[in-house]
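Sorry to interrupt, but I need a hand with the structure work. Could you add the entry underneath, on a fresh line?
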Amino acid sequence: MPRALDLPYRQIHLDFHTSGAIRDVGAEFDPREFARTMKEANVNSVTVFAKCHHGLLYYNTRRPERHPGLKRGLDLLGEQIEALHREGIRAPIYVSLQVDEYAAQTHPEWVARRPDGTLVGPKPLGNPYPWFTWHVMDMSSPYQEYLAEQVREILKLYHPVDGMFFDMCWDQPSCSKWAIDAMRKAGLNPELEADRLRHAAEVSRQYMARFHKMVRSASRGATVYFNSRPLHLLRRDIPYLEQVEIEALATGGWGYMYFPINVRYARNFGKPYMAMTARFHKGWSDFGGLKPQIALEYEMLQGLAHGARCSIGDQLHPRGRLDKAAYETIGQVYAKVKAAEPYVQGATPLSQIGVFLLPPEQTNTNSRFHRTAEGYTRMLQQLQHQFEIVDAESNFEKFELLILPDALRLDAALVRRIRSYLKKGGKLLATGSSGLSEDGKSLLLPELGIKPAGESPFSTTYIRFGRGADRDVPKTDHVMYERGMRVVPQRGTTVLATVVEPYFERTWEHFSGHAQTPPDKASRYAAAVIRGRTAYIAYPVFAAYAEHGNIPYRLLVRNILDRLIDQPLVRVEGPTALETTLMRQKRRTVLHVLHYLPQRRAQQLDIVEDVIPLRDVAVSVKLPARPKNVRLAPQGDRLSFGYEEGRVTFVIPEVRGHQMVAME
């Protein structure tokens, strides 16, 4: 089996959430056919089930939680592991952690409770389709020891395990008698929501530390992962993880921006990271729903382009037979991944820009992603900039430019670090209230060259682009749909765009027309400025771009970045739908170019069905030395190229979905 940190690139996450009312579980299971199907589909790791959300077990055990419909004498888990290992396929084990319907029904006192005393889970007689139908257990209660007994048994029966995947592991507040008692002992007030959340976070930290130690002590080389955790908490959670799995079912509610946002943060922690999607048309357990092969290909090759391992989710039919059509599709996708692996193994991303992650207290953890993160990811991706998402503890010095997006609050320590970075030659773009005091009336970074006057009284204003920021921008005043800050330039600061304020704020008392009040005259306030190596935009431009998609916002950022960055890492002549990533291996630099087009073909669903090839795509890449050769990968075809002033130039004959170019 592979070493713990040498994770395979072609994985299957095999769900098996199977009701106790189904009575023919495993009746058609053939271990040889099971493993052979995986092998033929180019799979080299399968996460198999010990315990599902129904709280039922799928191995030979005397515990009463063994699935009542599991074929007599069948050790489904054990036979899966044995058959997969015979084919050289890794087999980590899945355990549902906080969701356990069996325990909820037999021990309802262990279920987490809301402040009003109701149980966290479905209402009586309620089971809404399609998603959350489960009770959530309280890890402060005796349920944690009940779970630990199950895990100990699994670790003993299947020693040594390849890994453990614990699911449903968020911070769950609870007002059970055990949780309240623990909060009081810790000096917390159960009546305060903030203290309940603090206690929930501490409970999660404690159980992650406990189960991580349990698994690693029993099986030294095993991987451990706790799923369903907010990825912005990775800095806190990473000691308990051997890898990071970015669960991102684009058609299951995550959308096509969740993965590219989170991978740029997840890849900063020195652990293998994974792109997890599913073969379903929609979300988990979508029996009969098969995603188009092109969509599955895009989701996996996009992951590969960021240096991620690949994982495709499936759900085994209760009788134990894999879906032939699904694995034919998976096999074709994984054949492409397999061919690309020599060009991604050991590769690390090359990035020129570091964009700050808004800290957890500024992030809505109930949403799939924050508008600001979606906005800067969309924008910078469309502009072909190579960037990472960073936090206050990251290494800034490796980036040519930092972006403080929209509403980043700076403490004294972070201000010092940023100012030190600027003194060493770094560059900076701040937007919205970033770099200002919380009330927006004081400047924390004098290098920005502005004098702030607080938040604008107008919810909607207009931007008049000036020289240096107006390239490709139509000559008119462009509406800004989000409230900005009022700032005036200091002496020596160049104004790139001016705020035009409306006649008045639209209210019930006075309004004009159907939408925003028309623009009046140019104000004394700046919409965008530049001063030396720093620039500032007075609006939450990234959140505005995510919400409204107004192209002048992207042009404003592009034109400012062009002034700050003389030589971007990558330049591509192509449509904005192109995605590029630049990765570095020991002896080569690899450029990934992707061109897939998700389309909104259903009210809540983006679908990728067609590949529209691009031909004769001109590319320029910043490299410190002339390469010996430039080749298409994995095809191996040589490309003619030029090298001048630190840039290699070439033309890709065709991009059909995904194309790599290796510069040796």
In short: The CA atoms of residues 81 and 91 lie 6 Å apart.
